[in-house]
DNA sequence: ATAATGGCTGGAGTTAACTCCATGTCAACC
DNA sequence: GGTTGACATGGAGTTAACTCCAGCCATTAT
């Protein structure tokens, strides 16, 4: 009566995994060197990436997209690979990062407001300029 | 009957200007090498920065804060130093950048949402974990 | 008069995050 | 059984955006 879960046993070579997560093979190896993701190896020492790895990479990319430097992601990864006892630390990191993102958002909104103003003054200036030429 | 405008004639040395705009002297010289800001020189070849320069730097920093690479800022600066005839081009650049910022904001908001979810699941996981230890 | 201060130039060094390359192994296809 | 193709490793190269340094002038302070 157990449901078959293909995905549990499935694993990808670095080439196909690279395509799936849309990163280059070299980048994956670089992330491994930095300790962000450490895939299993098969009997020939080839990297084997799983569905879990895919989820983990997706999360890494979110952190990267919100400007977390690799060093910090590496720190988070280290804790994660250490196991459940580090959950509180990891949560604290994410909560700190959350505040950072909120700050970033504020800055972006401020700058967008100013940019909009600037664009408006450009419209006015260009109107004037066009008229002065006629 | 003309109003005296001190600020028009005022100018700062690179050292004091650096403090005012909160950039290092080296960064200012680097920006100049890249063509972002080209201050006047005095009779001894020393850079003299004006109030206009301060405003311009403030704008450069806004562009930087919204992740515009120096190459693009340089392009904008080039047009600006070329004069009024480039206003339309500059406005177009800013309008394009505006769209970019809006995209960035969207991404940030998306990622923030996911992060919040993740933090919530951490809270639940940690509760469970604490109980399992008692 | 000399020493400290501040600025100038050209060029080298640094950091992050990749990216590329030479060389080598192994399984598979013709 | 030789070639092809995917993967492995170690290390060099690249780009952006600074940052630092040596060697040289001019001005100011003692």
Name the largest protein-protein interface in this structure: A-B, 32 and 32 residues
Task: Provide the domain count of chain A.
Answer: 2
Q: Rough shape of chain A? A: elongated
Q: Which architecture of the largest domain in chain A does the CATH hierarchy give at level 2?
A: Orthogonal Bundle
Structural class of chain A: mainly alpha
CATH class wording of the largest domain in chain A: Mainly Alpha
Oligomer: homodimer
Strand content of chain A: under 5%
Computed Rg of chain A: 23 Å
- State the end-to-end CA separation of chain A: 84 Å
Query: Strand sequence of the main sheet of chain A, in spatial order?
Result: 1-2
- What composes the largest sheet of chain A? 2 strands, antiparallel
CATH topology of the largest domain in chain A: Multidrug-efflux Transporter Regulator, Chain: A, Domain 2
Domain HTH merR-type (chains A, B): 11-79
Pfam family, one (chains A, B): MerR_1
Protein name (chains A, B): MerR family transcriptional regulator
Keywords (chains A, B): DNA-binding, Repressor, Transcription, Transcription regulation
């Amino acid at each position: 009566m157990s449901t078959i879960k293909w995905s549990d046993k499935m694993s990808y070579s670095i080439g196909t995994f690279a395509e799936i997560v849309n990163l280059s093979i070299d980048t994956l190896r670089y992330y491994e060197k930095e300790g962000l993701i450490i895939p299993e190896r098969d009997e020939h020492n080839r990297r084997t990436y799983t569905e879990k790895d895919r989820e983990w990479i997706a999360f890494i990319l979110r952190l990267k997209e919100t400007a977390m430097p690799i060093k910090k992601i590496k720190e988070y990864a280290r804790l994660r690979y250490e196991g459940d006892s580090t959950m509180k630390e990891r949560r604290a990191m994410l909560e700190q990062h959350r505040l950072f993102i909120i700050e970033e958002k504020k800055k972006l909104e401020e700058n967008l407001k100013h940019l909009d103003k600037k664009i408006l003054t450009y419209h006015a200036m260009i109107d004037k300029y066009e008229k002065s030429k006629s």
